[in-house]
Amino acid sequence: MKKSTLLLNHTRLKASQIHKFRGFVGNLFRNYDVIHNHDPDTGKVIYRYPLIQFKLLRGVPAIIAITDEAVGAFAAIFMALDKIRIDDAEIPVYEKDLCLEEVEFGYSAEMYVYEFVSPWIGLNQKNYHKYAGMKDKTETDEMLKRALTGNILSMSKYLGCWLEKDQKIRTEVQVRERPINLKGKSMIGFMGMFKTNFIIPDFLGLGKSVSRGFGTVAKKLKVDG
Per residue, what are the HEC states of 60-92? Predict the structure, then answer.
């Protein structure tokens, strides 16, 4: 699978500004629905795994694209993005670093350990109320495992990677709760690590609001079993 990473070195944004960064770029390139996930003609939301994601990587604003279609839109972004407007502030972009690579993606017979480098929003409001009412850690861990497995299967499906009948996703989760703010609402995210037999390219996101930088993962190591 093709993956492009655009780093805006020496440009400083706060995590709370990433959704405005995405909005600025999406408005600038409104004809590219892969950026904002809305139909340009009707304005309706296009439900799919976000092919272009905006995030902070070690404090550096970044845009990541996957698949040929999204990577193809990167040329226009790279050439035109010489400033960012956040509210009334105009932030110049002095340096851009673009990396294009082929990455592995999909089911694996081996297990990999990943780390959430930004909060994972793995539960919707309904599931969170159920989660919050659980007293037993085994139950909460099992619920988070199911949520993570669902996130991986959804990402796999939308990116055209279909599993064979005998290929089952296995997950183990070791996370801690972390309060977050999403669209002005207080929610619970999770930070920590997980293990799965699915290869996820570094810095893609899992869960809700991955286009805004939530749920970003990075591979730590390959393990046996």
Answer: EEEEEEECHHHHHHHHHHHHHCCEEEECCEEEE
Residues of the chain with CATH 3.30.70.1900: 106-223
User: 20: phi > 0 → left, psi -120 to 50 → alpha, else beta; which?
Assistant: alpha
Render pLDDT for 14-46 as a digit per residue (tens, 0 to 9).
888 999 999 898 888 888 788 877 777 777 887
Domain 2-102 -> CATH class: alpha beta
Strand partners, 97: 7
* CATH class, range 106-223: alpha beta
Q: Which two tokens stand for residue 119?
A: 């909060």
CA-to-CA separations, 152 to 14, 33, 216, in angstroms, rounded: 28, 23, 13
- Within a 10 A sphere around the Cβ of 128, how many other Cβ atoms? 15
Q: pTM of the full predicted structure?
A: 0.90
Tell me the percentage of the chain whose pLDDT exceeds 90.
Answer: 58
